[in-house]
Amino acid sequence: MTSPNLRRFTRLTLEDTSVGVIDIESGVEFAGDGKDLSTDGLKFCAPMEPSIGADMQVVLSGRDARLPPLRASFHVLRVTPAMTGGWDVAGTLTGL
Question: Tell me: domain 13-95, CATH 2.40.10.220, correct?
Answer without folding.
Answer: yes
